[in-house]
Design a protein that fits this description.
With 463 residues, the protein is mostly helical. 82% of the residues lie in helices and 0% in strands.
Length: 463
């Protein structure tokens, strides 16, 4: 008697859409799962960190929220350059040129580290006028907390820059477990120290700042030890991590520079909408902070897919396999949208219990609830085409188009509509977020048009 075989309905999808000449679904899963765990830890721990700092009062969470929007703007500049390194490393890996994989990895670490150090020093010196320009309308207590947190954040930029560069290079090679290990070291250290400094010692924003620096530099030391001592395949030397050959710098910057410009303009637009939100009062700032944190929980699997696709498409293009690259981009968009739908079905019934983790004031609870619900529904059809597609296009070398599109859509739609909906029409924080959802749709439609053509894969990054 033959054993009964139960056919899993997802097997056909894996065979047809996540298996190609370049790699199969098992290799993609091996890349994706560590990144998924990494993203889950980062976001869940960030949720608990935000909840912990909220116990220090609305002024503390408002200050951290404002500065984190500025941090995102600044850190994403060197994270963008690290992404350029990931693309170049992945394409060399796909082409089978192991010697250039090592050179690209070293060049990426050196470039990002020096950029992060320079930014940290520059912004520490200019912190006061910058914060007054952006957040001068905030209350005195909020501004004092913001100043302390921003200086501490700038001091940590070199640490997180090293971690991001090494993690990006390892993802390009396909060693996503290394980036997972570094992330766990950094984020677990961060949350444990926050428990000590914030909950036990009641140090508030100062405790958050000290914990951040210790965690980031501990992970940076581990990252450097790994690439210099433990990774036998690349055999990097310390000298290679501080000197960048011009030819390699040019290749990394061909992807990293447009993406960095995109991040500056894109997050600059988000900073401007943050100014709108500051003018709506401390309650709106707190609602925005809590809403952003919970939105990231919904996006855990989708965010992991957006990182995985850079390695997958990069290696496909290194082999000059456009058919596989196109197939995988489409599959990742579908998977991302399905994951957002599943997360919404799981988490929407838990909205109030999740909100209660942050102890929001009674007067913002109803508005915060609708903010979360509207965004959870809108992101199912819109988020993937707005974020997965450009990640795939960028991995193929189409960095300039994706960057220009993102910059223009941000400023022409999110910023303008955010002001109209939130301030002019009086919809407040919900109006600002509705404008963001509209901008996702516009940007995603442009990327859908781009992927149907041929220009996105006509770029030649490696020789």
């Amino acid at each position: 008697m033959r054993p009964v075989r139960i056919k899993w309905p997802g097997r056909g999808f894996l065979a047809n859409y996540l298996t190609g000449e370049s790699m199969d679904h098992r290799q993609i899963a091996a890349l994706f799962v560590p990144i998924l765990i990494d993203q889950a830890f980062i976001i869940i721990l960030n949720l608990f960190n935000t909840a912990m700092i909220s116990s220090s009062g609305v002024a503390a969470i408002s200050a951290v929220s404002m500065v984190d929007s500025l941090n995102m703007f600044l850190i994403n500049v060197f994270v963008a350059v690290a992404t350029g390194g990931t693309v170049i490393v992945a394409q060399y890996k796909g082409s089978g040129n192991e010697a250039m994989v090592a050179k690209a990895s070293a060049g990426s670490v050196a470039t990002v580290s020096l950029l992060a150090l320079g930014l940290g020093l520059l912004l520490t010196a200019a912190h006061n006028p910058m914060l007054k320009l952006l957040f001068g309308a905030a209350s005195e207590e909020v501004f004092a907390n913001a100043k302390l947190y921003f200086i501490g954040s700038c001091a940590s930029y070199l640490g997180i820059g090293i971690v991001q560069a090494v993690s990006g290079a390892m993802r390009g090679i396909g060693k996503t477990r290394v980036s997972l290990a570094l992330s766990l070291i950094m984020n677990l250290t961060y949350v444990l120290l926050n428990v000590l400094f914030i909950t036990v010692l009641d140090m508030g924003v100062l405790g958050l700042t000290v914990a951040m620096n210790i965690a980031r530099y501990a992970a940076a030391l581990c990252a450097l030890y790994y690439v210099l001592r433990l990774d036998a395949t690349m055999r990097l030397r310390l000298r290679e991590l501080v000197i960048v050959p011009w030819s390699m710098l040019r290749k990394i910057m061909s992807i990293g520079l447009p993406f960095a410009a995109e991040q500056m303009f894109f997050n600059g637009g988000k900073m401007l909408t943050q100014v709108f939100i500051v003018s709506l009062g401390t309650g709106a700032i707190a609602a925005n902070a809590i809403g952003n944190t919970l939105a990231m929980v919904y996006q855990i699997p989708a965010g992991a897919l957006s990182l995985t696709i850079v390695t997958v498409v990069g290696q496909c293009m290194g082999r000059q396999d456009v058919a596989d690259a196109r197939k995988f981009i489409r599959a990742f968009v579908v998977l991302s949208s399905v994951s957002l739908l599943l997360m919404a079905l799981i988490l929407l019934p838990l909205t109030y219990p999740l909100m209660d983790l942050f102890q929001p004031p009674v007067e913002i609870r109803r508005e915060l609830f609708w903010l979360i619900v509207i965004n959870a529904i809108a992101q199912v059809p819109l988020w993937s085409i707005s974020f997965i597609l450009p990640a795939g296009l960028r991995a193929a070398g189409d960095a300039r188009f994706t960057s220009i599109t993102s910059m223009l859509s941000m400023w022409l739609f999110r910023v303008v509509l955010g002001y109209v909906f939130g301030i002019t029409l009086g919809f407040g924080i919900i109006g600002v977020w509705a404008a963001m959802n509209c901008e996702w749709g516009v940007r995603g439609a442009i990327f859908l048009w781009r992927i149907r053509g041929k220009k996105w894969y006509a770029h030649r990054l490696i020789g």
